[in-house]
Structure formats: structure tokens, C-alpha cells
UniProtKB/TrEMBL annotation:
Subcellular location as annotated: Cytoplasm, Cytosol
Broad class of the protein's primary localization: cytoplasm
Gene designation: fliS
Identification of the protein by name: Flagellar secretion chaperone FliS
Keyword terms, alphabetized: Bacterial flagellum biogenesis, Cell projection, Chaperone, Cilium, Cytoplasm, Flagellum
Database matches in InterPro entries: FliS (IPR003713), FliS_sf (IPR036584)
Gene3D superfamilies reported for this sequence: Flagellar protein FliS
Family (UniProt): Belongs to the FliS family.
Length: 139
């Protein structure tokens, strides 16, 4: 029911580390952090499904959906971003739809599908290393 002091301390330390990373990040780094958080949420959802932990599964899938909706879809500049922004919007929206189904069916294969689809996007984003894409709205 209660967590140990060391566990709470570790969680607080981790939260401060993440907040510091976010506070000090440029827009490119923020997207990298979002992709990392997305991958962690999807991995945790898979583990929760395997363990039969429905509340944890829902929590982690909902977190992944929020990352898509609030962190990846919302900043897309569909007016100036051209075909790339439109394609990313369609891909992210598809992933949200698939995660909704994964949540309803507790289907690990769908989560793995989303991870598989997102891996090249995440990897490509990390490789561009901060060159300013036009498909994001200015911060």
C-alpha cells in the first residue's frame, strides 16, 4: 500500500531529472524526449498486459495516447509543413486509433505494431539532430 522512502526518493530524483532535461531542451530535443517517453509507455503497457494488470495497461496506453495527441500531433504545422506534416499527422492519428483498440482488446500485437511503425520515425528524428523542420509550429 505504501512505498518505501528510497523508492519515493528515487521517483522524485527521476522526476527532477526529467524536468531538468525538459527545461533545458531545445525543440528538437523535446521531440526526442517525447519519442523516448512514448517507447517507455508502450513497453510498460506490453508488460502490464502480460501480467494481466488492467489498470496499469490502461494507464500506460493512455499516457502513450496523450504523448501522440498533445506532444506529437498538436505542434504539427499543417499549413506550412506540406506533405511531411500531413503524413505525420495521418501516421500519429492511426497510431492513436490502434492504441485505442489495443487497450480495448489487451492486444500486445497492436502495441508492437505501433512500436514497429514509430521506430523509423523516432530513429530518423534522432539522426537529423536539430535541423529545423518546417512541419513544426514555432514554440
Amino acid at each position: 500500500m505504501f512505498t518505501s522512502v528510497s523508492s519515493r526518493s528515487a521517483t522524485a530524483y527521476k522526476r527532477v531529472g526529467i524536468e531538468t532535461a525538459v527545461d533545458n531542451a531545445d525543440p528538437h530535443k523535446l521531440v526526442v524526449l517525447l519519442f523516448d517517453a512514448l517507447n517507455q509507455a508502450l513497453g510498460a503497457a506490453r508488460i502490464a498486459i502480460q501480467a494481466g494488470d488492467v489498470p496499469a495497461k490502461c494507464k500506460h496506453i493512455n499516457h502513450a495516447v496523450r504523448i501522440f495527441e498533445e506532444g506529437l500531433i498538436a505542434p504539427l504545422n499543417l499549413q506550412d509543413g506540406g506533405e511531411l506534416a500531413a503524413n505525420l499527422h495521418a501516421l500519429y492519428t492511426y497510431c492513436v486509433q490502434r492504441l485505442t483498440i489495443a487497450n480495448l482488446k489487451s492486444d500486445i500485437r497492436i502495441i508492437e505494431e505501433v512500436q514497429h511503425v514509430m521506430e523509423p520515425v523516432s530513429s530518423g528524428w534522432k539522426q537529423i539532430n536539430g535541423s529545423g523542420p518546417a512541419y513544426l509550429q514555432p514554440v
